[in-house]
Design a protein that fits this description.
alpha/beta, Rossmann fold, 13 helices
Length: 267
């Protein structure tokens, strides 16, 4: 499969089976611009897997609602009066259960992307946001809901790695999951591996070589154990461990495949 067509990305819906088994998700919209909040509220209310969203017009209000309601998703502007979106990102580490974070802002630069991803953002969109693309990314983040450690909200790639026996405490597991989701968020072949590393950087340990080494260590562990889920993912040559690129692209393809299953009608 080489990715989805524009039509498929426009009409993404969860299957009835998924909705019966999964409670509605709660999102928090954080933006000082009332028209942007109205736009995003209307968009979220049109997504059947989401409950009515929470709203905050500044960072301080956002932090209060994050602690009180523990939303699953936060749509975050960066430049706001008072407590900024950057400050909100910096405070996420204090939360017992962090939301998935999609930053939507008018400002954008390579240095900015480094900063927001190092603080825990999952994806970034520059305003004005394309709602079709936003729908695609948000549903990709939440298309799987399998077992995971308490207090952690992870996406589909983490679920796949967890089923293989990957330890949730390994940095390589967390980085591989986020990088694979970044690769899966675009049609195959349209994102370079090094570009995707933006989505896995962390303060104090964010170099390309460090990330690559941690993921390679994870691959070696999984290859030695040879769990069935790992062998199904890597069926090219069981005698040879995959390279970092081979493994991450295979993981991204599996994320896409599972996502497509959620779109298939129930027979």
């Amino acid at each position: 499969m080489n990715g989805w067509s524009e039509t498929e990305r426009t009409d993404l819906v969860f299957s009835p089976a998924s909705r019966e088994e999964t409670p509605l998700l709660r999102a928090l919209i954080v933006d000082d611009d009332a028209s942007t909040r109205t736009l995003l509220r209307s968009w979220l209310e049109g997504l059947e897997e989401f409950a009515r969203p929470l709203e905050a017009e500044d960072g301080q209000s956002a932090l209060e609602q994050l602690r009180r309601y523990a939303p699953d998703l936060m749509l975050l502007d960066l430049v706001m009066p008072g407590t900024s979106g950057f400050a909100v990102l910096e405070r996420l580490r204090e939360l017992s259960c962090r939301p998935r974070v999609v930053v939507i802002s008018r400002v954008g630069s390579e240095r900015l992307l480094d900063q927001i991803f190092s603080l825990g953002a999952d994806f970034y969109f520059q305003k004005p946001v394309n709602l079709k693309d936003l729908t695609y990314v948000v549903r990709l983040l939440f298309c799987q809901s399998g077992a995971r450690p308490a207090g952690q909200r992870r996406g589909p790639a983490f679920d796949i790695l967890y089923a293989m026996g990957a330890s949730p405490k390994l940095q390589g597991t967390l980085w591989a999951a986020r990088l694979a989701e970044a690769l899966a968020s675009v049609p195959e072949g349209q994102m370079l591996l090094k570009e995707a590393y933006y989505a896995v950087r962390r303060p104090g340990d964010s170099s390309y070589l460090t990330v690559d080494k941690n993921i390679r260590d994870l691959i070696q562990r999984l290859h030695r154990v040879g769990a069935p889920d790992y062998l199904r993912l890597w069926d090219q040559d069981h005698l040879r461990a995959p390279t970092c690129g081979e493994f991450l692209h295979a993981l991204a393809r599996e994320v896409r495949r599972r996502y497509e299953q959620t779109l298939s009608p129930v027979r």
